[in-house]
Design a protein that fits this description.
The protein has 164 residues and is mostly beta strands. 5% of the residues lie in helices and 55% in strands. The model has no long low-confidence stretch (mean pLDDT 88).
């Protein structure tokens, strides 16, 4: 899934294998309080920037999200890993919450092409929740819980399970 993140850099470090990790913080507007998030983005060695941004910089990162399934004490568990493709400096307003700086109106969006697994659930404030099945390049299905806001949320609410 292709996506875009923008946020305030909380941490930037290069790993021994030449890859890099960035931790970003943002507040994404949703016509209410906003959704506060902190996400980690990994850059594989060949895509890692020569110079890492400093803590406090505001950046935009085109990225790809992948779903990873693994076992924990015999139980299936999963997570979404985010891989950056490049880093673009940008400007934006920042809000301080305790020791953490968050980019206001940060972008945290990914494009899913898949099928609804069950009927979407409409929530207050124009938010719609859905469970989506997405096929990877090998044809294996991965499942994601998603939220869509405003106009996209209203469009999604009228879809039926089994359709993209």
């Amino acid at each position: 899934m292709n996506g875009m993140l923008s946020g305030c850099v909380l941490e930037a470090k290069r790993l021994n294998d030449g890859s890099a990790l960035l931790k970003l913080a943002g507040i994404t507007a949703n016509d209410h309080k906003g959704v506060t998030w902190i996400l980690q983005v990994k850059f594989i060695a060949r895509l890692a920037p020569a110079t890492l941004p400093e803590v406090g910089w505001i950046v935009r990162i085109p990225c790809i999200a992948t779903h990873v399934v693994f076992d924990v004490r015999g139980q299936k568990a999963s997570r979404v890993d985010i891989f950056g493709r490049s880093i673009e400096p940008m400007r934006g307003a920042v809000e301080q919450r305790g020791k953490v700086s968050f980019l206001l109106n940060a972008q945290n969006s990914f494009v899913f092409e898949g099928h609804l697994v069950r009927a979407p659930i409409r929530k207050p404030m124009g938010v719609t929740e859905a469970r989506v099945s997405v096929l990877d390049r090998r044809g294996q299905a991965h499942y994601f819980n998603c939220e869509a806001w405003r106009d996209v949320g209203q469009q999604l609410a009228h879809r039926t399970a089994g359709r993209s």
